[in-house]
Amino acid sequence: MNLVPAIETRRARRAVSTAPVSREEVETLLRAAHLAPSCNNTQPWRFVVVDDPATLEAVKAALPGGNYWAKPAPVILAVASRRDLDCTLSDGRDYFLFGCGMAVGNLMIQATSMALIAHPIAGYKPEAVKTALGIPADYTLITLVIVGRPGDPATLSDKHHAIELGPRDRRPLETVASWNRFEFRDPAASAM
Ligand SMILES: Cc1cc2nc3c(=O)[nH]c(=O)nc-3n(C[C@H](O)[C@H](O)[C@H](O)COP(=O)(O)O)c2cc1C
Predict the structure, then answer these.
(1) N or C: which end of the chain has fewer CB within 10 A?
(2) Can you tell me the distance from the alpha carbon of 146 to that of 109, in angstroms, rounded to the nearest whole number?
(3) Which percentage of the chain shows pLDDT scores above 90?
């Protein structure tokens, strides 16, 4: 059971084709997501699968220009939750975003193992998407996961084309992990 190749292979691919993704494939992705751990097994994730052409069009209309690349995708998964659907600790630790992130992480690795793209985005008009999908106002629309098959990188902007074909971009590991003591020199929060 070696997941490292899938983790290393996964990329936030933007060259997505219009080729269909079957209901069975989407259900496999959802099962992987739903097996994620959560605080007290609260399972705070709520997925709305968008594959109907009219609904897809409504969701895609809520994407800003920078997310043009998502327009060909045959499936979009909306991930919504509410603070009270997961652990809320008295010191302000609310776990619903964390739990949904764990689920989407599982889903992305599963997608990679099936040669599918599953790319989460934050760039969309949340109110427009919530209205299009009937997501109640008190839920947070945490992300849209763009799902599809690999497409032609030539369709991408120069910037995205370079990222798509370029190397993995990560800070040195020692800037995000230390041993036995917090050793980070992050800029002050007000400077971020
Ligand atoms: C919460 C979240 C929001 C993101 N939003 C966008 C987005 O709106 N548009 C986009 O093109 N990529 C988006 N990305 C992709 C990131 O830019 C990408 O994961 C990051 O640059 C690292 O690249 P990699 O996933 O290929 O390693 C998002 C990723 C995450 C996890």
Answers:
(1) N
(2) 14
(3) 93
Q: Please indicate whether residue 112, judged by its CB atom, sits closer than 6 Å to ligand 1.
A: no
Give all domains of the chain, ordered by start, each with its CATH number.
Answer: 4-191 (3.40.109.10)
Give yes or no for a contact between 152 and 15, defined as CB atoms under 8 angstroms apart: yes
Does residue 11 have its Cβ closer than 6 Å to ligand 1? yes
| Residues contacting residue 22 through CB under 8 Å, at least 6 positions apart | none
Report DSSP state, residue 159: H
CA 183 vs. chain centroid, Å, equals 30
Q: Which residues contact 40 (CB under 8 A, 6 or more apart)?
A: 87
pTM over cut 0.85: yes
Give the amino acid at 107. L
